[in-house]
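RECORD TYPE: inverse folding
INPUT: structure tokens
STRUCTURE:
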């Protein structure tokens, strides 16, 4: 596979403006308070994880299975950073998206199965979902 990429003149102009905008924002915010560390302590990110953690087995330490299905409920799924069992060393957004996408085939299969079973009496066809 070969990937070719280059910035256009418009892209470079936008990057330059973004840098100027960030510099203005930084100047407006000012310095850190004296005595306050510019480095935040480990674990102080706002990307909280593990609040509805996923696990391989229902052993009381997790809320859902690896496909985000809540233990004991076939049709209840959870998604988001909370499914990630522990804190990551990077931004957790893409991991949360990947985990949510992992559950999509199961959700679609259930919706399809339920739609084929449920038939509207007046039309004899599955209801619109």
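DESIGNED SEQUENCE:
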């Amino acid at each position: 596979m070969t990937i070719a990429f280059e910035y256009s003149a418009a892209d470079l102009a936008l990057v330059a403006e973004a840098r100027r905008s960030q510099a203005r924002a930084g100047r407006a915010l000012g310095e850190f308070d004296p005595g306050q560390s510019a480095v935040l302590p480990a674990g102080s990110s706002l990307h909280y994880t593990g609040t509805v953690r996923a696990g391989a087995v229902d052993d009381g330490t997790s809320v859902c299975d690896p496909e985000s299905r809540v233990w004991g409920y076939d049709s209840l799924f959870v998604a988001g950073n909370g499914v990630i069992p522990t804190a990551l060393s990077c931004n957790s957004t893409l991991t949360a998206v990947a985990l949510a996408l992992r559950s999509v085939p199961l959700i679609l299969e259930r919706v399809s199965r339920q739609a084929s079973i449920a038939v509207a009496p007046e039309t004899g066809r599955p209801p619109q979902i």
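NOTES: Residues 46-120 form one domain.
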